[in-house]
Structure formats: C-alpha cells, structure tokens
Amino acid sequence: MNAPDPGIGAREDEWAMDEVERAAAPEYEERDRRPMISGFLVGALAGMVALGLVWATTAILADSDSDSGRVATTAMTGMATTDAEPSQQTQSSPEPSQEDRCRQADAELAGPLRAAVPALDQWEIHIGAMNKLVVGAITLQQATAFWDQTRVGAKRNLDRFYSATRQVPVAGADCPSPGSLTQASAALRSCARHVAQERQAFEAARIAIQTWKKHIRHMEMLRMGHMSPATATRLWLASWQEGNRELQAYRRAERPVDGSERC
Q1: pLDDT digits (tens, 9 = 90+) for 33-51
Q2: Do residues 142 and 237 share a domain?
Q3: Half-sphere exposure of residue 66, counting CA atoms within 13 Å on the CB side?
Q4: Of 135, 146, 114, 128, which Cα lies nearest the Cα of 247?
Q5: Could you give the C-alpha distances from 233 to 108, 173, 226, in angstroms and in order?
Q6: 121-167 pLDDT, tens digit each
Q7: 212 and 156 share a domain?
Q8: Shared-domain flag, residues 50 and 160
Q9: pTM surpassing 0.90?
Q10: 206 and 144 in one domain?
C-alpha cells in the first residue's frame, strides 16, 4: 500500500490559509487605508487652515496699507493745506506804506526817549555837583548831599529805560531818511525828519545812560566796601568828565525833537 503523499495535506493547508488570508484581506486592507485617509484629511484641513491664515493676514495687511495710505494722504493733504494758508495770508496782507513805517518808528522811539529823561536828569545833578565843587561853588559836604540824593531811585529809572528800549528793533527804526523823500508829501517828509531826530537823541541818551549806569555800580561797590576810596575817586574823575561830554551831546540832540511835530 502506497504511503499518502504528504504534499497533498500541505497543499490543503496552504489552500486553507490562502482562503483565510483572502477572507481577511479586505479587513486588513480597510484597516490599512484608514490611517492613510485620516492623514489625508488632517493634511487637507491643515492646508485649508494655513490657506485661511494666509488669506486673513493678506487682508489685514492690505487693510493696514490702505489705512496707512489714507492716513498718509490725509496728512500730506493737511500739510499742503497748512503750508498753503500762510502764503495766501501773506499775499493778501498789503505791505505797510512809508507813512505807516514812519509812524511806527516814531512810536517805538518815543517810549525810550521819555524814559531817558528822569535817568539823565539825575545824572546831570550828579555831574553838576562835581562841576560846582571843582570851581568852589559848593563844599564837599554839599556835593556829597547831592550825590546821595541822585542815588535814590537811580536803578529804578535805569530799569525803566532799558525795559522801554526792548521795543526798538535791533536793525533800527524802519523809516526812510528825509533826504530820500524828495517826491513825498510834506507830511511824510516832516514825519521822517522827526524820526531822524529821535534816532540821534536816542543814541545819545543810550551812550550817556551807559556811563551813568557804570558810575552807579561804582558808588554801590564803594558803599558796600568792595572798592577803596582811592579807586572810587579815580574812576569818578574819569566818569565825571566823560559823562559831562556825553550829557551835553544828549541835550543838543534832544532839543530838535522837542521842537518838531510828531508823526
């Protein structure tokens, strides 16, 4: 009796296993496809989210750029308007006439000249006492009494003068010289002459008051013990002669101003 062929059983077993594997294959294939599908869905969702973020960012930047553009345009428009307004105002405002300029110069110079009067009157009394002392008309005691009298309120009068001079332009009064107004009206020529006289008187007053101010400082230093009597006497003799010349120049320049008509 022939022995059974062992290959048949093995083949049957293999066939059985093939059937089992074929039966189970769809299940395995389905399980294998699920991670792939899940991965694909996750990737697609991630892509859509990323695309949405990109779109939103682009929109925000576009709105920001648009707003910035509107702000910049508005700012530039405002600057242009602001810059244009002064030029329009400048064009619309007329230039002052020669009469207006001379009247303005008269007003600017009149204040300091009024303020110079009390200050230089004190300086004149101070110098006059020294003049009388030199010729023997008064005693040293009388001269000292005059000097003490002029010291009272001297600084206040100087402060008033210098405060008034702030109204005078550094470049001088803006009024044409009388010699350049040959074709002008009589009123304008008269006003220009008055302003020219005021200029001379103001300059003379300024120089004289500067010397008076220096002497007041020396007297204060002597009174407080910051200067010796010998030094104070030497400086006073120099200030006296210098101040006397300057005061006389101021008086000569002041007379025509008082005799002329204001603008």
Answers
A1: 444 434 433 343 344 333 3
A2: yes
A3: 6
A4: 128
A5: 38, 39, 14
A6: 999 999 999 999 999 999 989 998 888 888 889 999 999 999 999 98
A7: yes
A8: no
A9: no
A10: yes
